[in-house]
Amino acid sequence: MSVVLIVAIVLPLIAGSALIAFPVDDRRARYAGVAVTGAVLGLTVVLAGAFDRDDARTMQFETDRAWASSLGLRFHLGVDGISLPLIVLTALLTFLVAVHSLGKLPDGGSARAYVALVLVLEAGVLGTFAALDLILFFLAFEVVLVPMYFLIARWGTPGERGPAAFKFILYTLLGSALMLLGFLLVQAHTGTFDITELAARGGDGMSRGVQITAFLAIGLGLAVKVPMWPLHTWLPDAHTAAPTGGSVLLAGVLLKMGTYGLVRIAVPALPQGAEEFAPYLGAFGAVGIVYGSLVCLALLRSPDGDLKRIIAYSSVGHMGFALLGIATLTAQGINGALFVNIGHGLITGLLFFLAGAVKERSGTALLGRIGGSLYARAPRLGGLLAFAAVAGLGLPGLAGFWGELLAMYGAYHPADELSRGLFLVLLVAAALGTVLTAAYMLGIVRAVCGGPGLAASGTSETDDVGPMAEGAPLVRVDPLPDVGRVDVVAWAPLVAFTVVLGLWPATLLAVTDPAVRALLGGGA
Fold first, then answer.
1. Taking 60 as the threshold, does the pLDDT of residue 452 lie above it?
2. Is residue 106 part of a domain?
3. Domain count across the chain
4. Which residue has the higher pLDDT, 425 or 375?
């Protein structure tokens, strides 16, 4: 099965390179993208089916070959209970983005180039989640940056895409440089780049000072990608400017590379550094939860508030829960962080698909110009947006609930070496954030789906339009194209998995928990 993992990573890279190198008409390129990403999704499903859940703590489907012996580099890939869900999520979201590309793409470049960049990006993300060598991890991490830069710069919103793409690449490259310095420092004191060996050593061979320095460098580099407050400022601009597919992949999988790196590399390999910085990591995460929610509320009150920008700031808050969970250094908290990764990927991916649909149909994503009344203008689209918003606020029974709950439970009982008093304060801040999140998510529903009047275009202002319009002036609203066939294929899986993981969280936790406990040395 190790060959299946390699093929899943290499196939989109080869296909993307072929699309760039050989002229293919846009229609064939779109269908080629669906075929290749569908094949990759099928391969990851095969991996998930063959994965031994009773031994989820052990690396499976491993490939370990000498790569550059003189430098101590190895081509080392593998999958355990931490990486498997993220690999499947990446393949799923990329496939759905490829399906979405069968519809209308924004102006800026050919569909062939767009699909090629999406495929190369998929290969980089899958390589990041499967890499078990620090330099291989770094290279795969960097591969992702280039296609995302061009997706924003070429297909993004005119007037915004250039500065947003530049800010994205500047922040992420600076973060990558810090991360690489940390990796080199670790190798200089341990003599290895192997991630599994470093985790098994648990910091042996490195003094406390070295671990603290290395964790600071690696942690900062990964925190930019999360994004952790106050290193988040590139994210709202990138999301606001990016095309719909770019926003889905950026929120759904690229942000997860940061939290995954913290769990996979920084915490197990540098335990003393993790202990030193855990309070700061948790504090920044808690501030991000509250800050992101407050900004979303402020944008809702502004006539120039952008729907995509609100969802982007919501990601700062949601990923704050992941940081808080990791900072507890407990199995419960880290399991919560991993659940946040998957739940946020599904729900925010759906939200960005829907926000893109609203923008495409109404011609704008500005709340003051959308016009509201989506329930009347496109009822199925309005219902889906309401569902996604309710899922995003963490309603029990949907995928957004469990990760936040476990992260806060971890904060209630942090690791013994951490200050419980501090984490109780952070728990209160996170709880406040959940209330604020509910306020702005319901505010989105009210602003976009509702409205002062629900009379359809051509309806007389004296006609009875039902109790929803009582006490409010009726306005004429033009109908919008509702959910189409391509939309159903692209969005239905996200809705289904959001419900399934919400009702049966053990589906995911049974896979992640053994691997998390193994990384923590078997502790609770």
1. no
2. yes
3. 1
4. 425
- Domain ranges, residue 38: 2-451+484-519
Asked if 349 and 248 count as a contact pair (C-beta separation under 8 A), the reply is yes
Which band of pLDDT confidence, cut at 50, 70 and 90, is reported for residue 451?
low
| 3-state class (DSSP) for residue 73 | strand
CA distances from 215 to 177, 263, 264, 294 (A): 14, 12, 13, 30
Is residue 486 within 8 Å of 102, Cβ to Cβ? Answer: yes
CA dihedral 36, 99, 121, 92 (to 10 degrees): -80
Cβ(362)–Cβ(370) below 8 Å: yes
Instruction: Output the pTM of the full model.
Output: 0.91
| 467 CB-contact burial (10 Å; exposed 0-12 / middle 13-18 / buried 19+) | exposed
Q: Is the peptide bond before 396 cis (omega within 30 degrees of 0)?
A: no
pLDDT of residue 485: 86
Integer Cα distance of 45 and 497 in angstroms: 14
Instruction: Using alpha carbons only, give the angle 151, 152, 157 rounded to the nearest 5 degrees.
Output: 125
72 lies in some domain: yes
Distances (CA, A) of 162 to 13, 112, 148, 165, 169: 26, 21, 13, 5, 11
Burial bucket for residue 241 (CB in 10 Å: 0-12, 13-18, 19+): buried
> What pLDDT, on the 0 to 100 scale, is given for residue 523?
43
- SS3 at position 60: strand
**Residue 327 belongs to a domain:** yes
Residues ≥6 apart with Cβ < 8 Å to 42: none
Q: What residues contact residue 481 under an 8 Å CB cut-off, 6+ apart? A: 361, 378
Domain presence at residue 428: yes
Positive or negative, the Cα torsion across 8, 9, 15, 16? positive
Kindly compute the dihedral angle of the four CA atoms of residues 90, 94, 97, 101, in this order, to the nearest 10 degrees.
170
In which band, very low, low, confident or very high, does the pLDDT at 248 lie, cut at 50, 70 and 90? Answer: very high
At 269 the pLDDT is 92
Length of the chain: 524
User: How do strand 60-68 and strand 73-79 relate by DSSP bridges?
Assistant: antiparallel
